[in-house]
Design brief:
Rossmann fold, 23 helices, globular
Length: 597
């Protein structure tokens, strides 16, 4: 079969079941785009308005469906615009395949349009190397089948991650005689299984524990290990506490659920993780926010708690805390084996246990703490009130996408997810601008389910242009935009860390007054259904109308922008250094001394 490099890629993407390729054409990718044009009845090109949005959309699709999409860019700026999307996927361990145009092979180093070559010829890819699980450069069209096979293997096995492929313009256009491989025959079909001896040791520890906790990280979500998590938790009567990336992996109305731990966590989750005698951490990196910057006895007790760490990546085990048992395995396989071993030892009657009653009491106390914000009748409303009313209006099965800012912090603390897998958020890279395009990807992956993006105004404005993408392709996502006229999460941090007089460069102002564009009006001009509200009693009707609109919709919710009504307080510790000219406050200096790093 004689095919160009672009045609080889198109055929193999179709064979792999990739329904969409997302990108912006440029001179560096037109041969690839033309190959896709010739196959538009079998694979569809979606045109976003920014390359980072293309990667976020593909990322959201993978998180919702567990299957990858491909993105493509031109050479130079188009390629480098993908860096934020790639870094988000890389840190959160999600699979995206990105093709970037590149200089003609025979012109490497001459300085053609958009080439970076002063240190290394055709060096655009080096900017993306740290945020790619693997980078490939195709120097001949005949190399592409092998590269594609290896790219899918790298993306989807072990710890998932984004892969980039550099495509010189002449390689896209070059025709070669080629036999296309069957990608299914070149990929492992099974996930890594745990060592039975380590499973036995872990089961014995958990079975003998009096205050066990399962700390749920993003690895549980990546493996779709929700039933196995439930079995393991109920077999040992463990409290289930999640990290930010583990949010939505366990039903919030289950008696063993204990919310989040960490710097943005709940007092309920923090109390249980720091008093645990045994912690089973699954797919969890013990990152600084989860571990409260490693300060002793805030999220975790460095002494007196025995840790079992189960992770598909052996490099994560013992990286930040010593472990009693380290299990290298896929989260689903590891939890299933552990549940089997616990059940064989004799499962606990957790429903009648005093520890379960304590979990429930602590959970109720936490929700009571939040009541002052959630039930407040203010105009504009608190974000807590917005979230409470939104949860009541959105169906349980709604996929909810959110990203960095006060809305995300409060989602972590107080927004219950009932159906496993219904939360999609940015974790370790804490990316703003993720919500809007990622929600479009999630809806494309799950067209039969309602999808909502919950987002702050600063986050929303970073990719507001992708409302055009939603309208052009008829992707009916509902966006709930908490508008507080600024980067208020950072303003709150400035005041909390440095003092109330230290708010600076975080408010959106015009001539000294708070300023915001009319977000509902902007959405309407893009072709969305939209409305603007400011009171809690307006939230439910507005969301129901947005869902019924059957097209992209924006609910702009004006929310309180003056402390203490801007958000709920951070419950844990997070090391935010104080400038030396302010003097090290006693609280900060003491906290730093107690960090275990």
């Amino acid at each position: 079969m004689r095919l160009t490099g672009g045609e080889i890629i198109a055929e193999l993407l179709i064979q792999a079941g990739v329904p969409y390729v997302v990108g912006i054409p440029g001179h560096g990718s037109i041969a690839l785009v033309d190959a896709l044009r010739l196959r538009s009845d079998r694979i569809r090109v979606l045109q976003p308005l920014h390359e980072s949005a293309a990667v976020h959309l593909a990322d959201g699709y993978y998180r919702a469906a567990g299957r990858p999409l491909a993105a493509f860019t031109s050479i130079g700026p188009g390629a480098l615009n993908t860096a934020i999307g790639l870094a988000t996927a890389y840190v959160d361990s999600t699979a995206v395949l990105v093709f970037t145009g590149e200089t003609h092979v025979h012109m490497f180093g001459v300085g053609v349009l958009q080439e970076i070559e002063r240190h290394t010829d055709a060096a655009n890819w080096r900017v993306l190397e740290p945020v790619s699980k693997r980078h490939f450069m195709a120097l001949q069209a005949r190399q592409i089948p092998r590269i594609m096979s290896r790219a899918f293997n790298q993306m989807l096995t072990g710890r998932p991650g984004p892969v980039t492929i550099g495509l010189p313009m002449d390689v896209q256009a070059e025709a070669v005689d080629v036999d296309l491989p069957d990608l299914r025959l070149r990929r492992p079909a099974s996930a890594p299984l745990p060592d039975p001896r380590e499973i036995s040791r872990a089961a014995d520890l958990l079975h003998g524990a009096t205050r066990p906790v399962i700390l749920v990280g993003g690895g549980v979500r990546s493996a779709r290990a929700y039933p196995e998590l439930m079995r393991a938790a109920e077999a040992c009567g463990a409290a289930v506490v999640n990290t930010m990336m583990g949010l939505g992996s366990f039903p919030a109305d289950h008696p063993l659920y204990a919310w989040c731990t960490g710097a943005k966590g709940s007092e309920c989750g923090l109390a249980l993780t720091r008093s645990a005698d045994v912690i089973l951490a699954v797919g969890c990196r013990f990152a600084d926010e989860t571990a409260c910057s490693y300060r002793h006895d805030v999220a975790f007790a460095a002494e007196g708690t025995r840790i079992i760490q189960l992770d598909i990546d052996p490099h994560e085990i013992g990286k930040n805390y010593p472990v009693e048992v380290g299990i290298v395995a896929d989260a689903r396989a590891g939890l299933a084996a552990l549940a089997d071993a616990l059940e064989a030892l004799g499962p606990r009657d957790w429903r009648e246990a005093g520890y379960t009653a304590e979990i429930g009491r602590r959970r109720d106390e936490w929700l009571t703490t939040l009541a002052g914000c959630r039930d407040a009748d203010r105009d504009p409303m608190d974000i807590s009130s917005l979230l409470r009313q939104a949860r009541q209006a959105l169906p349980r099965e709604t996929l909810i996408v959110h990203s960095s800012g006060n809305t995300q912090a409060q989602m972590i603390q107080e927004f219950p997810f009932y159906e496993p897998g219904t939360c999609i958020t940015t974790g370790g890279f804490s990316t703003m601008g993720f919500t809007l395009p990622a929600a479009l990807g999630a809806k494309l992956a799950c067209p039969e389910r309602p999808v909502a993006g919950v987002v702050g105004d600063g986050d929303f404005l970073m990719h507001v242009q992708e409302l055009s993408t939603a309208v052009r392709y008829g992707i009916p996502v509902v966006f709930i935009v908490a508008n507080n006229f600024g980067w208020i999460s950072i303003r709150d941090l400035q005041m909390a860390a440095f003092g109330e007089d230290c708010r600076y460069a975080t408010d959106f102002e015009r001539q000294g007054q708070p300023y915001s564009p009319d977000l509902a009006g902007i959405a309407r001009d893009f072709g969305c259904w939209s409305t603007r509200i400011s009171r809690a009693d307006q939230v439910g009707p507005a969301i129901r109308d947005a869902l019924d609109a059957g097209r992209p919709a924006v609910v702009e919710a004006l929310v309180a922008r003056d402390w203490p009504h801007t958000g709920t307080p951070a419950m844990g510790w997070w090391d935010v250094p104080i400038p030396a000219y302010m003097g090290h406050s006693g609280d900060y200096a003491q906290g730093k001394l107690q960090e275990g790093v």
